[in-house]
Design brief:
Elements lengths: L2 E6 L6 H10 L4 E5 L11 E5 L5 H8 L2 E6 L8 H19 L3 E5 L12 H4 L2 H8 L4 E7 L1 E2 L7 H6 L1 E2 L11 E2 L1 H14 L5 E4 L7 H12 L4 E2 L6 H4 L7 H16 L21 H9 L7
Parallel strand pairs: 1-2, 1-4, 2-3, 4-5, 5-6, 6-10, 7-9, 8-11
């Protein structure tokens, strides 16, 4: 049986949503991961165990697929090395497997390079590999996930919110649900042979997030800038030390300038698409059922 879409990282934050949305539409999906058992079963999803750092396993995993959704993994003691090994292997394997459409998830501003934030800049090599592969491709460049606000849920309820950037710094916030919806829509449309920046137009700020929380929770929430080194901010994150260093570097980059792209370009392909606002996200996911609707 031909698999319509293979999803790399089917247990991940975005990949799991993409696979589930495709399957609910009756599309045959192959979910690929080192341990895909964490993905809930679905009749339209075939789960495959594969070590995608191995070229032969990658080629075998993609056999008989028409399209691939690729979110390269970024974890462990050397997250960027793993990202390269899996990403480049999968793109090469996709060429040999005759894949017709590669949807690659990178990061906002990865196409610019030289931002100084390795977690962004490192993804440019994957974009270049996709662009030169000869495969029809679409690149998605999302910004900062609104789902990161789950880490601050208790603080919102206590009346404060803190991040390591100035209160009016504009950050490219985007809901993971929006990323998955765009991915599914573009998988259906076919290769665009270009990249798209994904985030709320104009971005979000510490102040605007606190204001949204105030409305949702019906009590004042204040934004308090974390002014110590960003490395101290990430110290409690459940990540490897090398991964913490990458996030600290990213946050230091955010301190220096607005982190924005050109999300309006997506309207040319998906006219009428609306991003989830911070307040909508809080009401639907972070604090469902709280406050006045």
């Amino acid at each position: 049986m031909e698999i319509q879409v293979s999803v790399i990282g089917v247990t991940g934050t975005v990949g799991s949503r993409v696979a589930a949305k495709l399957a609910r539409q009756g599309i045959q999906v192959r979910g690929i991961a080192r341990d895909p058992s964490r993905f809930p079963g679905h009749a339209n999803v075939e789960l495959v165990i594969a070590d995608l750092t191995n070229r032969q396993e990658a080629e075998k995993a993609l056999r008989n697929s028409r399209a691939v959704y690729l979110t390269p993994p970024e974890m462990g003691e050397d997250p960027l090395a793993l990202e390269s090994a899996v990403g480049l292997n999968v793109i090469e394997a996709a060429k040999h497997a005759g894949i017709q459409h590669l949807v690659l998830h990178t990061a906002l501003q990865a196409d610019r390079g030289k931002t100084g934030a390795g977690i962004i800049d490192h993804k440019r090599q994957l974009e270049q590999a996709a662009e030169s592969s000869g495969i029809g491709y679409t690149i998605l460049r999302p910004g900062w996930f609104l789902q990161n606000l789950f880490l601050a849920k208790d603080y919102f309820e206590q009346g404060m919110f803190s991040m390591p950037w100035p209160p009016e710094r504009r950050i490219a916030g985007v809901s993971v649900e929006d990323i998955a919806n765009v991915a599914v829509a573009l998988l259906e449309k076919g290769p665009q042979n270009r990249g798209f920046d994904l985030h709320l137009p104009g971005g979000v700020t510490g102040t605007s997030i606190a204001q949204a929380a105030s409305r949702v929770l019906d009590h004042p929430v204040q934004y308090v800038e974390f002014t110590n080194p960003a490395r101290e901010f990430v110290a409690s994150f459940l990540l490897s030390e090398s991964h913490k260093a990458l996030y600290a570097e990213l946050f230091e980059y955010f301190r220096q300038q607005d982190y924005l792209g050109q999300p309006e370009a997506l309207q040319g392909v998906l006219p009428g698409f609306q991003y989830t606002t911070v307040e909508q996200f809080m009401r639907s996911e972070l604090f469902p059922g709280k406050g006045r609707q």
